[in-house]
Structures are given as C-alpha cells and as structure tokens.
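Okay, is this right?
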Amino acid sequence: MSAELLERARAGDREAFTALVEPHHRELHVHCYRMLGSVQDAEDVLQDTLLAAWLGLAGFEGRSSVRTWLYRIATNRCLNHLRSAKRQPATTAAAMPVPAPEPTRLGEVPWLQPYPDVLLEELPDRVPGPEARYEAREAISLAFITAVQLLPPNQRAALLMRDVLGYRAKEAAELLDLTEDAVTNALKRARATLDAAQVAGQPTPTDESVEQVLLDRFVTAFSEHDVDGLVALMSDDVWVRMPPLPFEYRGTEAVHRFFTAIHPHWRQSDRLVPVRANGQPAWGAYSRDRGTGIRHLTGLYVLGVDGGRICELTRFETTLAPYFGLPRTLD
C-alpha cells in the first residue's frame, strides 16, 4: 500500500482512490459472485462496496491491508444483500418452449449465472492464505458455486473466508464481526453440506486430447440433434439444469426423455460458438430464423466433464451474452 496514495485519497483525490482499489477490483468481483451466484448482483454489490469504501476512507486506520479492508466491506454488503433479497422467481412449466417431462427435482438456485473465463484471466496471481482448502480458480466451478448458494449467509461467508481466501479463524471472525467459535461452527456445517453435495474434491482429471475428442463429439451430436449420441457421452448420474427454469434432470434415462420431449424446439439450433465459463467448456447456441435466414442466440451451454464423460450440462439464458463476446445474431 502506498502511504502517499492513501493520504491523497483521504484528501478527496478520486484518482488516488482508484489507484488504491483497482488492483483488488477483479478478485472482489469474483468474491461477490461466489457469495451471490449472479454476475449482475456481484457488479451491483461491488459498486456499493467501492462507494462505501470511498465514503468510509477516513475511518480506515491501516490496522489491516487495504485488500482485507475491502473484503470486509464487500462481504458485509453481500450478506446484507442476501438477507434482504427475494431470490426465488416464480417459474412454471408454462415457461418451457415445449411440454417438459416430469423433472427429477426442482432446482433451488434459479438466479445462478455463469462467470466468463475472460474475466478470470484478469485475476491477480495471488497465493491463497495458509488455511485455504481450494485454489482460488478451482473454487469457481458451477458445482461449487451452486452448492455454496444453498448455504445460509454466515456459513457461506465463513467457508469462502476460510477455505477459499485462506484467512485464519481469528482473522475471519474479525472480518465477519463474529466470535471465533461462531466462525468455526459455521465452517464445520458448511463443509459438511459441501461434502454431502460431493464438491469437496476435484473431478477426475481428463487428458486434454481425450477431453477434446469428447467436446468434438458433443458439438456433433448437439448440432445434429442426435439424442442417443448426446446421451451416450454422459455419465450415468449426469445432471441437466436450465436456470432460471427450475427443472433439473438426473441420469441418462431422465435426460433422454427430456431431450426427446424438446426435440422439435431443439432442432432449430444449428450452430454452436465456443466460449468458456467458470473454467469449463461452454458454447453459445444459435437458431436460424426460417424467414430471414439470420441466426439468433438462444442459450449458453456449459459442460461439466469428469473422467472423460459429461457429468453436467447447464443451459443459461442469453442475458450475459456481451460478457462472453457473443453477438445476438449471426448471418
């Protein structure tokens, strides 16, 4: 931290303040995303965080680093958002483009959004603290983010502070305005929940050349609307999800029924444009308008791969298309 920058910022120099907080901007955005599961909510809360930091700069005594101070503000703003937000949009089967088969279950995280890898590339190359169980980039998978969203707010914050950022129990307690015992208990419960959700470990690694063959076969099966070929690439316990629609399908039989049911609508998709989200392979899907011949972006698909098989397929709406560099239309 530059003492000169801090003094200039305290004196009202906005450029100095920007220089002071800019090195932490991207990692704070990712932290807010982990807390909230939504890129758009993360942006809103981060802006609120920076405003609060600017207005409260006179009260910063320098007993911690600027980075830790900003994490404290950001985490508390996220907690306030979680406690005040109504995050369960009403969605029914009528929202499906075609009648859907009975789902395996209704998902509990309809607000989930994907995080563009191009933004992850801007993360500073920092080593997590000594208490971290996850590498910072590893704790961005859709499985991890989804599981974290199911934790109560304090458990969520404790897990991210301790196991992702690597703060010690005493430091995390100070950041969250809790006792060490409260943080330890919250962390214990959070870990148990993630263990039950089977996201505590990393997926079985897949050789890059093997994975590329799998992805090529996925693109072919998807583009040719080959239900059998698509399902053949999946693990027996595969999940198919489509937030903000709550329907979730588990297992190849349920997934086969789903893709068979939506086949009349699905067959309109005739092009996939590769991108990456949450450290995972992803594609923007385009459907051709029969009248104009123009292809329109209809969804963003993100794959989870484990041991050379597709273990998750998540379809998102097109809201975040600009973040992925995906045009709305293609000739």
Remarks:
- The longest helix spans residues 66-84.
- The chain has a mean pLDDT of 90.
